[in-house]
Amino acid sequence: MDLPFETGESGGEEGGTLASTVLVVDDEPVVLDICARLLERESDLVVLVAESAEEALPLLREQRIDVLVTDKNLPGMGGVELVAQARGLQPSLEALMITAYASSESVIAAFAAGASDYILKPFDDLRVLRAKVRAALERRTAGSRVREQAREVAREASALLSAGQDAPEPAHEALEVELRAYEESSRAVQQGTVGVVGSADALSALTEAGFEVLELAPYAPELERVDVVVVETGDPQWRTLAERLQSRPPDVLLLASPQADLGDLLEAITLRMDLVGFGSSQGASVLPEKVRMLLLRRGVQRALDRLAAALTAFRQSIRARSA
């Protein structure tokens, strides 16, 4: 059974059974075109575009939006105000801010309005946008407490700054350092370790693509310490392994071998597994890119957690100075 295809990753509130909707707002047509073309490649995403906040608001009132991606500087209503209004209309919506330069003040304002991440333009690597939208969908589905706490911290810090209080210069510098580190992490598209179970072809393809790869047995303890696990349906223990790793840290990627039957595929869907066909040259080329995206997404999430911690430290320094 040859499966030279790639299924979409799960997103949205129904565990991937429904398409997720992304609204991109930017007054530059070329940016809208690039974002739309890139995201529309994802089979489970519906992409809407608007050239202004005023054009976006009716869409936000009329239909469910899972992720809002908006430029910070828009004609008329700005991106920060749009995020605030969007979150008022749809509290579970995730928002990403596009900005040409991220300063501590602009990031605090964006987070305070309800954004949970930002993207620098021009886009050096378009995969970053896809990875950040995917990470946002996961946060929306999971209802991440860490991200909501970061927004609360930013709101309080913004209120303190507006009231005339400020953090000492070292705190500003520390936050700026963390912002630069976060931006650098978004460019590190291939950091992390991949464990491969039951597929010599996958091991070879990933090694040739430059990944750090370990060939592991189905019950190797290292499986819980790698970033991504790749397992093929040809391995007789793939179901047991997938179930065991579902609640563990690694992302699990399932390869559909040429001998995979319909039962394998249905079970993979039931387990909400990320599935990649691997019985042709096309499937072999898809695998490295899929793993690269998973590693990038994980790196973005870890860096965003560190940025949230830096925002908390910044807020605490304002409190300490005003005490």
TrEMBL record:
Coiled-coil intervals: none
SMART domains for the chain: REC (SM00448)
The UniProt entry's GO CC annotations, sorted and at most eight, read:
cytosol; protein-DNA complex
PROSITE patterns reported for this sequence: RESPONSE_REGULATORY
Q: Which residues carry this modification: 4-aspartylphosphate?
A: 71
Q: Does the keyword Cell membrane apply?
A: no
What processes does the entry annotate via GO biological process terms?
A: regulation of DNA-templated transcription
Q: Where is the Response regulatory domain?
A: 21-136
Keyword annotations for this protein, in alphabetical order, are: DNA-binding, Phosphoprotein, Two-component regulatory system
Give any Pfam family that matches: Response_reg
UniProt GO MF annotations: phosphorelay response regulator activity; transcription cis-regulatory region binding
Q: Which PANTHER family match?
A: PHOSPHATE REGULON TRANSCRIPTIONAL REGULATORY PROTEIN PHOB (PTHR48111:SF40), REGULATOR OF RPOS (PTHR48111)
The name this protein goes by in its record: Response regulator
What are the leading ranks of the lineage? Bacteria, Pseudomonadati, Myxococcota, Myxococcia, Myxococcales
